[in-house]
Amino acid sequence: MVTIAERLDNAYGRIEKAKQNCQFSETVQLLAVSKTKPIADIEAAIAAGQTQFGESYVQEAVDKVTYFKQNKALEWHFIGPIQSNKSRLVAENFHWVQSVDREKIARRLNEQRPTNLKPLKVLLQVNISGDDNKSGCHPDEVDTLAQFINDCRQLELRGLMTITEQTDDKQKQLQYFQQMRACFDRLKDQYQQLDTLSMGMSGDLDTAIAAGSTMVRIGTDIFGKRQ
């Protein structure tokens, strides 16, 4: 039976191979998506050296963050849709939020982020493929939302995130990711602190890295399929 440590090692190897194939020199971080997975699986990943974890379901995530609160090396990313009535829990418990796609949520996170904590690191989620089944702001809304977040005292704008439509058309997929990279580079000219372009998952990380992703979100290839 393949262990989580071995799967993590394989995932990092796949990232390095993808970088070599396209001669991409930037660092590509791996976010281990641990949503729906038990504490024991996360402990196994931590023991193998993983420190960044992504969660999508607020209450489940808060329970995990609380369980591991003594481990200061861990970084918790919220990557799912944010309901207004759950925004306070996200603001109080996470280091990063990758799924901010409207001003209302950004405002609530800013107001609800405790002042004794560092500003919440934020990625704007962009619906680059225009898929009705995916969350994210329209590309035309990015500049306005980025400006709003940059002006929020308790938020720190750090980049962009996307989940593209599922397609077997690699060229179409590459075009979406390239559009995201172009948007990221344009925004970075205005906000020098931007350093994170989160795109690519287990099934399409090679294409995402070829287009310039700096963070891939991997769940299945590390923890196995969700039950």
From TrEMBL:
Q: Does the keyword DNA damage apply?
A: no
The organism's place on the tree of life at top rank: Bacteria
- Which Gene Ontology molecular function entries are recorded, alphabetically? pyridoxal phosphate binding
Q: Which Gene3D superfamilies match?
A: Alanine racemase
Extract the Pfam families matched here. Answer: Ala_racemase_N (PF01168)
* Residue stretches making up the Alanine racemase N-terminal domain: 14-226
Name the InterPro entries for this protein.
Ala_racemase_N, PLP-binding_barrel, PyrdxlP_homeostasis
Q: Which cofactor does it need?
A: pyridoxal 5'-phosphate
Key words, A-Z: Pyridoxal phosphate
Chain positions with N6-(pyridoxal phosphate)lysine modification: K35
Physiological role:
Pyridoxal 5'-phosphate (PLP)-binding protein, which is involved in PLP homeostasis.
Q: Which family does it belong to?
A: Belongs to the pyridoxal phosphate-binding protein YggS/PROSC family.
Query: This protein is called what?
Result: Pyridoxal phosphate homeostasis protein
Source species, please?
Pseudoalteromonas maricaloris
